[in-house]
Every structure is written in structure tokens, then in C-alpha cells.
Amino acid sequence: MTNLFDLAGKVACVTGASSGLGRRAATVLARAGASVVGVARRAEDLEAWRKEAGGTTAAVAADLSNRDHLGAIAEQIATPFGAPQILVHAAGINTRQHANDVTPEGWDITMTLNLTVPFFLSQVFVPAMQEKGWGRIVNFASLQTTRAFPCGIAYGASKGGISQLTRAMAEAWSGDGINTNAIGPGFFPTELTAAVFGDEQRAARNASQTCIGRNGRLDDLDGPLLFLCSSASNYVTGQVLMVDGGFTSK
């Protein structure tokens, strides 16, 4: 029987690959056989990821927040192994500003990184996927895709937008074999959630709100990610898969 999760011969690009869930995603895809290009601002951290991941990898140190540079960044991404058939949009930002304190600058960079880049970077690579008749795009949603959290108005708005963007991208491109879905992580220990996990009472409270009774571990992401990036998800598109231990079910 064919291994539905085998990514040998596929080229993948993961943004936000220098840390957190993006780093984990890039490592998982490389170990599943894909040639992986990791994209992030911090070159040293990208090189550390490459040593950790093994496999066939390349790094592109770039700032995705400048939309005018996306074309040039896309060229760098396609240089090592060719245009990717798998795109994982894990780069993001959460300014954690109260609604009264949100600035136009904070709002704009949040929307750019979390919502605008996933669409326009995908748009660049869709023609190559269409030629092959196969592609996988995975956006990153959030608990705040459907829940309002304190000091999360800009982040929540961007992640709410990801849900609709995912459906719209699926409607536009799934007929060409390019499936678009999103993963919605719960609370995982990353740089972005260091403050949450540094507060034992808060971390325990979050765990108690899940159905499973614990917060996420990085390896909890592996199976859902491989499913959405592989032929195992041939008939799945336009969906937001919450990997949150049932947090949003309670």
C-alpha cells in the first residue's frame, strides 16, 4: 500500500521556520522526505534549524513584512530546489495590545504578516502547482480565529480572516489539485507563548479548559501537519483543523 504521508520528491516552503511551530513544521516535513526551504528573519536560527532537521534543507533569511519584497523573496525560495508544491505559512506576530492602545503601525504589520503574506506568497507559486496538478497550502489559524482574547484585537482579526481566506483559496484553486487548509493550534510552548507557560497557574488554567486536560506538546502537531501536506488529504480542502486538545469544543 502506498504511504500516503510520504513527501519524497516534494518541495516545501515553511515561513517562520526559525522558531516555534514553524520550526517544528519545517523539521517534520524534512524528515518525511521533502526538500524544505525555511524562511525567517534570523539567519543564525535558521542554520541551527537545518542542523537539527537533517534531510535536504535550505534557508532564506528575509523579512516578509515588506510586501514589496515578496517577489524577490519568492525567487530566493525557488532557487535551491525549484518552486515548492507545499507551502506552510507559520510566520506571524501578536502585538498583544489592548484595543485602546492599538496603533496603525501595529495593526498594519499584524495584518501583513498574518493575513496578507499567506495569500500573496501563495499566489506567486500557484502557477507552478497548477502545472503539476498538485499542491498543498497550510495556513495557521488560532484559538482566536473564533474566540476573543484580552489584548488580541488585531491578532484575532487577522486569524479570523485566515479562516475565510482558507475557504476562498480552496474555492479558487482546489479544482487544480491545490488544496488549502488551516491548522488552528491551541496552547503550545513556543517563544510567543513564553509568558503563558511561565505562569504555572495560567498554564494550568488553560490546560483545564481543554477536553484532553493538558496543553499541547510540539509533537502533537506532527500528524495533523503531515496529513494536510500529503496525499492523505486529497479530498480535504477549505477546512480549519483545530489542534487544541478540544479547547474550542468546551
From TrEMBL:
It comes from the Bacteria. The keyword NADP does not apply. Keywords: Oxidoreductase. Transmembrane segments: none annotated. It holds the Pfam family adh_short_C2. Belongs to the short-chain dehydrogenases/reductases (SDR) family. This is SDR family oxidoreductase.
